[in-house]
Amino acid sequence: MNDRQRITRDDLEQRFQALQDDVTEITETKKASLTGLAIAGIAAGLLVAYLFGRRGGKRRRGVIEIRR
Question: Which end of the chain is more exposed for a tag (fewer CB within 10 A), N or C?
């Protein structure tokens, strides 16, 4: 064999743990911004639905006369 070191189970576990830590850190930082964007998107959707509903109500509103 050549003079390279063998890769042990501990080496693999350390590398995978480091990778897992990096991925966890990235997802935690992105989670806050994605939550804020989701809330802003839902609020914008509700506002648009409200405004379209008001507009539709004004167009379809009829004049009702009550006579005795």
Answer: C
Buried b (16+ CB within 10 A) or exposed e, 31-67: eeeeeeeeeeeeeeeeeeeeeeeeeeeeeeeeeeeee
- The span from the CA of 68 to the CA of 51, in Å, is 36
Residues in the chain: 68
CA angle, 63 as apex, 62 and 68 as ends, to 5°? Answer: 135
Rounded CA separation 4/10 (Å): 17
